[in-house]
Amino acid sequence: MPQSFGDDALGYFTERLDQAVTRAALIGTLHRAKRNKAFQDSRLVGLAIDGTTAGHSTHRGCEYCRPQHNANKEVIAYSHQMASISVVGTGLSLPFDVEPYGPGDSEYAAGQRLLARARSQLGARFADYLVVDGEYATAPFLHAADRAGIPVIARLKDNLPELSQSVERRFATCPPTRVYRDGKDRLEVWDADDFAPWETLRWDRVRVIRYRQHKPDKTIVEAQWLTNLPSRRVGSLSLYHLAKSRWEIENQGFNDAKNRYGLEHICHHHPNSILIGWLLVLLVLVIERLYRIRYLHRGTHRVLSADQLCRVLWLSLSKPSFDTG
Ligand SMILES: [Zn+2]
């Protein structure tokens, strides 16, 4: 008699799986994609690191469930936290590793572990830059990137008051360095590569760009980024696009992984089961994207989205079969 197996068996199984094997599969897939020229349309390949939460629940499911507070500091829910790393800036976002962090740990420390692991597994020449949000723009993280041999582009916010103030003093009083037409947007860019590093940062100089993006609907987006990428290698407009590639880890990374690939749901609250579940979701996402966006795109037809492709598949299944005999 065939017997079905229950959730307990799956829980027992995933608690004992070796995460290193799934991580190696993801790294191997990226190496193969690069060898097969999946990123060849982009001059530079980027990496982005950022944090997110998943597995929201109203009660605590395990010791790694972290409380979420409302404005009055009352616990309203629990969730699991992770930092993730993704290939960006190539027209093909591929999130390829996650690092969970629990009580006593931080997104920032998890991000540094991710970066060190990516460097040792991908090799020094896989990516050309790393792009991160403002909370990673600290001397220890930038030094970790130096050790990994990768230039960084980091959002400049008020958490670096010394640099922010000298940037404001210089840029507020002078016209933009360059004005561009970028698609339908008008873009004003201020760019200078000779700001003094703040006290703890062991860089000779800091390059900062500020952009003011005027969209056709009159909205204006303004932001500042710091970097150690030299201007002779990456011009102002290119640097603007590299900085914008950070959004991929939020949109094509976390949002897609949660809404379309099931990253949000935790089947079994055990640290190893959760990590294995997340890594398997990333492996599925990476293979699916490589297949759909690169392999299926050979030829002249346009790239289909995953749900368009699914619809085409269903329609093709309903075609009348014909007699081959
Ligand atoms: Zn939990």
Note down, in words, how this protein is organized:
By secondary structure, this protein is an alpha+beta fold. It folds into 2 domains: 16-133 and 246-310, no CATH class; 154-237, no CATH class. It is 38% helix and 24% strand. The chain has helices at 7-15, 19-35, 107-122, 139-148, 161-171, 236-244, 247-259, 271-295, 306-317; strands at 46-57, 66-69, 75-88, 94-101, 129-132, 152-155, 178-182, 185-195, 206-214, 220-227. Strands 1, 2, 3, 4, 5, 6, 7, 8, 9 and 10 form a 10-stranded mixed beta sheet that branches. Strand 2 (66-69) and strand 3 (75-88) form a beta hairpin. Helix 1 (7-15) packs across helix 8 (271-295). The longest helix is centred in the last third of the chain and has 25 residues, at 271-295. The structure holds zinc ion. Residues 61-62, 64-65, 80, 269 line the site of zinc ion. Residues 61-62, 64-65, 80, 269 line the site of zinc ion (ZN).
Question: What keywords describe this structure?
Answer:
single chain; 325 residues; alpha+beta; 2 domains; 10-stranded mixed β-sheet; 9 helices; 24% strand; globular; binds zinc ion
Question: TL;DR of this structure?
Answer:
The protein is α+β, with helices and mostly antiparallel strands and 325 residues long. It contains 9 helices and 10 strands. Bound molecules: zinc ion (ZN).
